[in-house]
Amino acid sequence: xxxxxxxxxxxxxxxxxxxxxxxxxxxxxxxxxxxxxxxxxxxxxxxxxxxxxxxxxxxxxxxxxxxxxxxxxxxxxxxxxxxxxxxxxxxxxxxxxxxxxxxxxxxxxxxxxxxxxxxxxxxxxxxxxxxxxxxxxxxxxxxxxxxxxxxxxxxxxxxxxxxxxxxxxxxxxxxxxxxxxxxxxxxxxxxxxxxxxxxxxxxxxxxxxxxxxxxxxxxxxxxxxxxxxxxxxxxxxxxxxxxxxxxxxxxxxxxxxxxxxxxxxxxxxxxxxxxxxxxxxxxxxxxxxxxxxxxxxxxx
Amino acid sequence: xxxxxxxxxxxxxxxxxxxxxxxxxxxxxxxxxxxxxxxxxxxxxxxxxxxxxxxxxxxxxxxxxxxxxxxxxxxxxxxxxxxxxxxxxxxxxxxxxxxxxxxxxxxxxxxxxxxxxxxxxxxxxxxxxxxxxxxxxxxxxxxxxxxxxxxxxxxxxxxxxxxxxxxxxxxxxxxxxxxxxxxxxxxxxxxxxxxxxxxxxxxxxxxxxxxxxxxxxxxxxxxxxxxxxxxxxxxxxxxxxxxxxxxxxxxxxxxxxxxxxxxxxxxxxxxxxxxxxxxxxxxxxxxxxxxxxxxxxxxxxxxxx
Lengths: 300, 305
Prior knowledge:
The complex is a heterodimer of chains A (300) and B (305).
Chain A: H1 2-11, H2 14-57, H3 60-64, H4 79-87, H5 90-121, H6 127-139, H7 142-155, H8 162-186, H9 190-198, H10 203-232, H11 235-240, H12 249-259, H13 264-298
Helix pairs in contact in A: 1-2, 2-13, 4-13, 5-8, 5-10, 5-12, 6-8, 8-10, 9-10, 10-13, 12-13
Chain B: H1 13-40, E1 42-43, E2 54-55, H2 59-66, H3 68-101, H4 103-107, H5 111-117, H6 120-123, H7 126-136, H8 143-150, H9 167-192, H10 196-204, H11 209-237, H12 241-246, H13 258-268, H14 272-304
Helix pairs in contact in B: 1-14, 2-14, 3-9, 3-11, 9-11, 10-11, 11-14, 13-14
């Protein structure tokens, strides 16, 4: 395009050429008015994450001293990751989190599919109430639940237990999961259910053998959001899982702030490792997730 | 072959399907909410049996309204944690959404990458966000202090999170950083839903850039803005992680907010009833916002149907 403009301009009088060039320069200058501030803001948004990864790779000795900017990339290596997995319980925390998040997600999805199917296919008297209750729980501050939950779980012996935390996480993620799943189920024609029922399929069979596979692309988003929500959760985990063996990744990472306060390389390595699952899963469903979030808030 | 009865009573079926989910929700939302009200009128420590609880009437609520520390925690929650960061998120979010929508980025083929990069803070777990920023703010070897010292803006490094003059600004920066992408996404979707014809019509009426923003963009964004404000206010007001893991409410009680106050009352001072009462006050305040939110969203659902 630029070349085109230049050749045309070349054929014209020198004065016109100057005008064209000035217009182009002006447009470029105006473009910079957009590009420069955007890049600056984006740099600030991305910088902490880049800095985290860079710090986790730098040698300990370099972190303790004030390094000249030119030597920031000297001697990069995975030493901090070695210290993290051999010198702390981080491996254990990872396993705890994987277990709790995976089981919670599985339970949430099963319960959400059943409930969403009921809400999608049947018009029953309490349907409106059920939907309202599900929505209302989303607006209830979770912090408020902690004191009664702590006492109740203590009473039934579920403090410091995977089961207790899984139950809390299922309850925490279920309402949103039901809403999202309901949306996907509503798009599936009822003819399919009827055909399956004629073939002798039970209701639960219809949900998991017929509807679930069709809604799977959508449900993948629900799986990812549920998993990330439980993986990132800090508050319940920190109050309900106090024994060191049972800490989740987020609680473990936060305990490093005090325990290894001088070893920022190791803390940043732990932070990096605990971000990887989120980033990977998020990237898988990014388009759909963003579209869904946006549609949910903007829908008119 | 004996087949199962073809027409089972279908009237019970929706209940059977939804009951498991409802039981979980009831046990973990409804029961604790009700029990929280009971607790607010009791005196109880985490080491007592619930049956040992002593009834204390309105004492727990009275101390909320007389204790100056809880009063300042309430102010901090409303002003520093919520109002300030929500306003900054709105302004920055709208600005960034407009920048990311601009034709210039499209022309330079930068729009895709820019829209991916803007999401990065949102993909980082909140605790990790705190870890990153604690390291950036570190008084001795943190990159921010190193930069400010090398530019001769500061003589020596400052502990931004540990001194009253800067602690709230530092915490607010973390909240804005982590929670900005959501606002940007929603604003971008709002901008995309504005019909182009309206801009063309505005241009025919010889409206300038500023005027079409004032008379086309802003009015169209108003409903989106209301939802964003309500959602971010509800989420931020109740937030515990950012303050607890950055300053722990300190120095002293300078950055204490209601969520951390609730935690300290219940699990540090061992007064579970006090924590429950703070929770009820928080719920009441956010209940107003939640009701407005439900009104706004259900109104719009109604119109779209």
